[in-house]
Amino acid sequence: MNTNIKKLTTAALLLAICIASMFLKNTSVFITGPIVNACLILAAICCGLEYGLILSVVTPVLSFFITGSPVIAAIPVLMIMIALGNVILIVIMWLFSVRLSRPSGKGSRLAIGGITGSFMKAAFMWGSISQLILPAYLPEKMQKMLPVLQAQFSTTQLITALVGTGLAGCIWQALVRAKVVSKE
After folding, report:
1. pTM, whole model, 2 decimals?
2. CA dist., res. 93 & res. 58, Å (int)
3. Fewer beta carbons within 10 angstroms: which end of the chain, N or C?
4. Could you report the per-residue pLDDT of 41-86, keeping only the tens digit for each?
5. Using N-to-C axis directions, what is the helix angle for 77-94 and 29-42, rounded to 10°?
6. Which among 117, 114, 106 has a CA at the least distance from the CA of 175?
């Protein structure tokens, strides 16, 4: 099979998994978040950075249309900030796992990049969304939700990104053992 078609098919499958998981968002963000983050990471390391970036930008938009978040409806710029947070995670993870020097196996570089990217994503979202945008633009009728929303766009993002990194690492290792992808 043509390599480009295989990458596109894999990225489409990962996007489909993201979309399916979004229907569970009202159950728990701790289910949806790690699945989406794992799919973003797997798209970048298995298909290429461009696919990881595309999914990083598309998933917050699709999530809004699927779940209809009233907070994002009130402050649409949140979609852009969530997408940028995803991009930060993917770029940092990709730099560590694919582009930087290879002192050890890809698995350990994936872990270091994913952990670093998770903290950077959470820090970005904490600073931009929790500390700047929500306090300034959250409608008056939603102000009582501010502390919960601030945690959702900081601590929760860190936890779901870290769990997603672990999930992606486990899946990637299984793919390597099954010889679906190469170690390097």
Report:
1. 0.90
2. 19
3. N
4. 999 998 999 999 999 999 999 988 988 888 988 999 999 999 999 9
5. 50
6. 106
